[in-house]
Amino acid sequence: EVYFKNLSKQKQKEVMEKNGNNHKLRVCVATCNRADYSKLAPIMFGIKAEPQFFELDVVVLGSHLIDDYGNTYRMIEQDDFDIHTRLHTIVRGEDEAAMVESVGLALVKLPDVLNRLKPDIMIVHGDRFDALALATSAALMNIRILHIEGGEVSGTIDDSIRHAITKLAHYHVCCTRSAEQHLIAMCEDHDRILLAGCPSYDKLLSAKNKDYMSIIRMWLGDDVKTRDYIVALQHPVTTDIKHSIKMFELTLDALISFNKRTLVLFPNVDAGDKEMVRVMRKKGIEHHPNFRAVKHVPFDQFIQLVAHAGCMIGNSSCGVREVGAFGTPVINLGTRQTGRETGENVLHVRDADTQDKILHALQLQFGKQYPCSKIYGDGNAVPRILKFLKSIDLKEPLQKKFCFPPVKDNISQDIDHILETQSALAVDLGGTNLRVAIVSMKGEIVKKYTQLNPKTYEDRLELILKMCVEAASEAVNVNCRILGVGISTGGRVNPREGIVLHSTKLIQEWSSVDLRTPISDALHLPVWVDNDGNCAALAERKFGHGKGIENFVTLITGTGIGGGIVHQHELIHGSSFCAAELGHIVVSLDGPECLCGSQGCIEAYASGIALQREAKKLHDDDLLLVEGMSMKEEEIVSAAHLIQAAKLGNTKAESILRTAGTALGLGVVNILHTVNPSLVILSGVLANHYVNAVKDVINRQALSSVKTVDVVVSNLADPALLGAASLVLDYTTRRIY
After folding, report:
1. Which of 94, 187, 209, 646 shows a CA-CA span of 20 to 30 A to 714?
2. Where does Zn(2+) bind (predicted)?
């Protein structure tokens, strides 16, 4: 870490020497509306805090200067920024032509401002038509452009504008890995792309602990409680204005019927915005006792309002981006945000064409609490951006270079040229040990921690949190970016809620346990939980023999017997999350008693516990040890002793292992006749001892149509941890309603 810090300082020193020792980077930040200011303000504060490196000029234009939209330039002044220039660039109108005329007016006025300021670099945010005018002016006047939030995907004309600005910009700051890959695919120079995260997240992730009740009461009334109100923010869709107006009308009707206190914000300045305001007034929203209609809410206060809302509804990018940091439920209406990466908290209503559909979505989402999402940032965007700015060499040629195919590999490089690897925190809760690991996207276990699994619920949960926090801190040092936490545990698990329903006897005090909530709250990361057998199947699907296989079964042969079933590339959980309890397939009506209380289960014959039980019986009768074996007095008899005895010619030990292999083989035959997989993967410490026996039983007992199944031994060193990581690395958070 010290080495890389020194490397960064040395590089900054070299850049300053190239640029001239006394030259400060003159940065022009142009802000057009309340939304882009919330992203630009953290960067502006960072620039202002380092006057030895930067000079800041602020240009304000667009809807900031319109009374109908709250004269939001005042919040820039309240933040103690000197506004160098105010440009009135909005042409009032009802249709698309007004937006075109506004771009033209801005293009007429901006050259004079830029000639006077002569900035070294201009920072432009997002995808608004005002931003396109800014980027066009700067590019034609040979001013370097840093574009914030390029590479993202959404609906409407915003997509085209965003990508047009990308082509004009010289440097790019993106928020997600996907956005970075889109920029690379668009032939942008990879060395000029910084994956920093969203600047607004730097403020969001520290905001929730502040006093919020006074803010809620100020905007919604004294009688409102947390999680018992709605925030609505809907904008016109410029590519289909009539439909978006109709959808807004249906949304207001649904909100009136839902009968909850609602804060409605006025829409953006876009074609169709005036018609949306008319719809609000026609329905009496501004005078309705359940509604508060406002033109603008300061960002600091808006954060608190959405953080503690029962739900947010509309089509604003804020809903699918910033609100995920708090786990607040969101209903995303229509196509305006189609393609955006979203957290688990977002429910999409693509065709919001009836009031009932929107009302039903409100009933599904209102009052829920989801895991916090860090898809768009980890709270450290601004330091990364400032380092990036300091590294810019003004003596480099201004002309852009495009990197046409072949495209570079999936590499994320920060200002120190350090690779930050997308990774997961994997947790494995076994009967004996508790393990936590940092696992990369390629399945590499970067760092692993192991402790004895405590016997009580309180001690166990405390240790999990402690180990996860330690691992998350270490991830920074090993240049890994943690996307979430995956937990593999024994017992029956409800993966939708992240709850252990019933535990095995090997893990005490582990029933009806909510694992998701405390870990997500502590780490501000999404958390997924599943049964250890299912996790083993997921590990095989992503990293092992199951990769690319449509239907396969994994059997774990260890202390117990477990497994997972993948059918048509998807894991099967069952109606009560009890699918794939393969160890409890009964293969004999009068067999030995199983830990589950039944008799004749596969686990009662073939598990490590079962083999240990039989080994102990032989040892008690002095029938276990043969020539070449020895045991210390205090040594505990285990399954390993039985296997060793069988290898050295102990016929009774051989018979026990043969019976165990036959029982496992019969169980596999039942599985083949039930789900007909094309592959069976044996995993765990006993897999090599059983594989031939299982194949023999299949050849003798199975129907001819399933005898061709492949039976292989897993080549994964740690399927439990890799499977827990797969929960995070493979999980798709988009839901369609």
Report:
1. 646
2. 584, 594, 596, 601
Measured CA to CA, the distance from residue 352 to residue 244 in angstroms comes to 9
Q: Where are the beta strands (DSSP E) in 342-453?
A: 346-349, 421-429, 433-440, 445-452
Query: Residue range 404-411: average pLDDT?
Result: 56
Summarised one tens digit per residue, pLDDT across range 622-641 is 898 888 888 887 889 999 99
Q: What is the CATH number of domain 207-365?
A: 3.40.50.2000
Binding-site annotation: residue ranges: 492, 504, 532, 581, 584, 594, 596, 601, 603
Predicted confidence (pLDDT) per residue in 430-450, tens digit = 777 899 999 998 899 999 999
| DSSP 3-state percent helix, strand, coil across the chain (nearest 5) | 40, 20, 40
Return the CATH number of the domain spanning residue range 19-198+380-391.
Answer: 3.40.50.2000
β-bridge pairing 499-502 and 513-514: antiparallel
Rounded Cα distance, 247 and 585, in Å: 53
- Tell me: pLDDT of 139 over 80: yes
Q: How far from 104 is each of 25, 154, 402, CA to CA, in Å?
A: 29, 25, 28
44: left (phi over 0), alpha (psi -120 to 50) or beta: alpha
Task: Judge if 19-198+380-391 and 413-544 fold alike in CATH terms.
Answer: no
Instruction: Please state the residue numbers annotated as binding site for an N-acyl-D-mannosamine.
Output: 492, 504, 532, 581, 584, 603
pLDDT of residue 698: 96
Q: For residue 643, what are the CA distances in angstroms to 558, 594, 625, 691, 715?
A: 13, 21, 11, 14, 21
Instruction: Name the class of domain 545-715.
Output: alpha beta
CA 313 to chain centroid: 21
Output the known binding site for Zn(2+). Answer: 584, 594, 596, 601
Looking at residue 491, its pLDDT comes to: 85
DSSP string, 714-733: ---S-HHHHHHHHHHHS---
Strands 261-265 and 570-571, sheet pairing: unpaired
Q: Pseudo-torsion of CA 366, 294, 321, 96, nearest 10°?
A: 120
CATH number of 413-544: 3.30.420.40
For this structure, is 158 an active site residue? no
* pLDDT for res 194: 96
Task: Return d(Cα 228, Cα 344) in angstroms, integer.
Answer: 20
Close Cβ partners of 476 (under 8 Å, ≥ 6 residues apart): none
* Residue 216 parent element (H or E): helix 213-220
Residue 231 confidence (pLDDT): 97
Domain boundaries, the chain: 19-198+380-391, 207-365, 413-544, 545-715
